[in-house]
Write a structure and sequence with these properties.
alpha+beta, single chain
């Protein structure tokens, strides 16, 4: 069986080859992870947030494909210098547009990146023991999708281990 390469646009390929803000941030205010290495895509976001709730610095680590790296990279660029409330409003669709589009099979990479961002923002406020009025009580679409993807990966991993044991 041959595999056709995915039709990534030049911006996705550039961000994949030369990602912005790649690497662990030692002085991060908050970190959050989304994804599962068993399924192939995992993101860790690091955010440095100041007293005015503005994201001063953002970086990421990624285990995944070109789309995963590109969407994580662009999210860190989109949120630098932005208040948390405005960063929360970023959607997977705006991420997809910012990278110039993605093959439909890779839309989940933008969803995962925003899910990790939302987790980081939610964790920041949980650590502070406050919940601003604009932060929804329930999970965002992107958080739910990231959670579903992680749960599916766990189920598949268990099935594979069971199948290997037979």
């Amino acid at each position: 069986m041959s595999r056709m390469p995915l039709p990534y646009n030049p911006k996705v390929l550039e961000l994949f080859r030369n990602p912005k803000n790649l690497g662990k941030m030692e002085d991060a205010t908050v970190t959050a992870v989304a994804g599962n290495p068993a399924c192939g895509d995992m993101i860790t976001f690091y955010l440095k947030i100041n007293e005015q709730e503005v994201i001063e610095k953002a970086s990421f680590e990624s285990y995944g494909c070109a789309a995963n790296i590109a969407t994580s990279s662009i999210v860190t660029e989109m949120i630098k210098g932005v208040k948390l409330e405005d960063a929360w409003k970023i959607s997977w669709k705006s991420v997809r547009e910012a990278v110039g589009g993605l093959p439909s099979i890779k839309f989940h990479c933008g969803v995962l990146a925003v899910g990790a961002l939302h987790r980081a923002i939610r964790k920041y406020y949980k650590n502070k023991g406050v919940s601003p009025s604009w932060l929804p009580e329930g999970l965002s679409f992107e958080e739910k999708q990231a959670l579903e993807e992680e749960e599916l990966a766990k189920i598949l991993e268990k099935r594979l281990k069971t199948a290997e044991g037979k």
